[in-house]
Design goal:
The chain is of the alpha/beta class. It contains ten helices and 22 strands. The strands form five sheets. It has a seven-stranded mixed sheet, sandwiched between helices. Strands 2-6-5-4-1-3 form a six-stranded mixed sheet. A five-stranded mixed sheet has the order 7-8-9-10-11. Helix 9 crosses helix 10. The longest helix is centred in the last third of the chain and has 15 residues. The protein starts with 9 loop residues before the first helix and ends with a strand. The structure holds S-adenosylmethionine. S-adenosylmethionine (SAM) binds next to helix 6, strand 15 and strand 18.
Length: 420
């Protein structure tokens, strides 16, 4: 699921105005003596508490030739060293990789990957997981997912390009991977399309089968943001496993149908899956087939969720479980969707088709929405529909999505199971 990394608040707004220049200088991962930045007191306090970034506005001095990718020493106004990081020219000026001195090389990456690997506790029959969760595993801007034996690296910035070769070296020696894919996050014009795609090993089939708690899913490592399974929702699917049996389920914004398949595998009597995208629905059907479930026994609608909910309400349809896990923003035939503007309306529309005592699975991965605001949308939506909600389960991201306490951006996910 696409996380939103923002610190939030006044400073962020001011920081976002930072200009992005287009540099293509090759990165050097040997610190050049003298390449350094001096940060203001505000940044120093955050860095000392463990925050991994320096924003452009916080840089009050610089020395050496700073091009994106250059390794720099971060210094306080008094000249104290606050660590070593990689220089960039977006609104993040430096991503800090070390709190002390040292190189940013394969040995460092190996060490961080081994530590992250040791933290991962996966449920049985699961081979789809996140090995590196960026800042939270002390590798800022770097995400690595494992799909059976295929590793997918996603980098937040072209300035991190110099990490690719050492990462591949470590992945291919530390884990038994058969292929490594590289993707870039966001739409930074500096991303070099030539350099994304398969970067090591065998291409293999465009789709491969992975398992989550014994349930099969087809994923496409070449598809970048659309690989096909959001592993941070695994605990919710796992928690729900004993609760689907005999229930009628509606999955709105269903994507490739991970919840729909989990429900059908768990014995749901009928699952209706709604998504704007027919290609995603086709992948959802393929996921049913991958679990020996007949997609013809269930229903797939390619349409706007609100239109589907409206039709179901008018027909007096009722569901035992409704899933509302929408994107943060989207554009569709029925207009623009955004969590901040529309979540309350979504909750009330879902509750109008939820049976008495039924369960609503409500989620958002938008980091800028606090749990308090999220609760506000749920209360507002329930009031509008004339229903009352109580939380019966609050899902926590799994161990392969750790959250560094000193990096507030990492606590993006809200996913509650509520009874109406
Ligand atoms: C973040 S994904 C949802 C993740 C999904 N719930 C899961 O568990 O894997 C967003 C999905 O919402 C779909 N979508 C976006 N706007 C929509 C709309 N207005 N109505 C229905 N689906 C929509 C997109 O096509 C995409 O598949």
């Amino acid at each position: 699921m696409a996380e939103d990394y923002r610190r939030g608040g006044k400073n962020t707004q001011r920081r976002r105005k930072g200009k992005t220049k287009n540099h293509r200088g090759g990165p050097s991962f040997q610190p050049k003596t003298g390449d350094a930045v001096v940060v203001n007191g505000y940044s120093e306090r955050w860095l000392r508490s463990g925050f991994p970034w320096v924003y452009q506005e916080e840089v009050i001095g610089r020395a050496g030739s700073l091009v994106p990718g250059r390794v720099v020493t971060i210094c306080s106004r008094e000249g104290k060293e606050l660590g070593v990081g990689i220089w960039d020219e977006g609104h993040i000026a430096v991503r800090r990789f070390r709190r002390g001195k040292g190189l940013i090389n394969a040995d460092l990456l190996r060490d961080r990957i081994q530590q992250a690997r040791a933290r991962r506790v996966l449920p049985p029959e699961t081979n789809a997981w996140r090995l590196i969760h960026g800042e939270n595993d002390d590798l800022p801007g770097v995400r690595i997912e494992i799909w059976d034996t295929v590793a997918v690296i996603t980098l937040d910035s072209p300035s991190l390009k110099g990490l690719v070769d050492p990462l591949v070296e470590v992945l291919t020696t530390e884990l038994e991977v058969s292929a490594v894919w590289l993707h870039w996050r966001g739409d930074d014009p500096r991303f070099d399309e030539q350099q994304s795609g398969l970067i090591w090993g065998a291409r293999g089939d465009s789709e491969l089968m992975v398992q989550e708690c014994g349930v099969n899913f087809r994923v496409q490592p070449a598809a970048g943001h659309d690989i096909g399974l959001f592993c941070d929702m695994r605990p919710t699917r796992q928690w729900m496993a004993p609760h689907w049996s005999g229930r009628r389920v509606l999955n709105t914004f269903c994507f490739t149908g991970a919840f729909s398949v989990a429900a059908a595998v768990g014995g749901a009597t009928e699952v209706i899956s709604v998504d704007l995208s027919q290609p995603y629905l086709d992948r959802a059907k393929a996921n049913f087939t991958a679990n020996s479930l007949d997609p013809e026994s269930h229903t797939f609608w390619a349409e706007d969720t609100f239109r589907a909910l409206d039709r179901l309400r008018r027909k007096g349809e009722q569901f035992d479980v409704v899933i509302a896990d929408p994107p943060s923003f989207s554009h569709g035939p029925a207009g623009t969707w955004s969590v901040a503007k529309d979540y309350k309306r979504l909750v009330s529309a879902c509750l109008r088709v939820l049976s008495p005592g039924g369960w609503l699975i409500a989620a958002t991965n938008l980091g800028t929405i606090s749990p308090k605001e999220f609760k506000g949308y749920l209360i507002g939506g329930a009031e509008k529909a004339g229903r009352h909600l109580r939380v019966i389960h609050e899902a926590c991201p799994p161990a392969d999505f750790p959250a560094a306490l000193t990096f507030p951006e990492s606590r993006y996910l809200k996913c509650w199971v509520l009874q109406a």
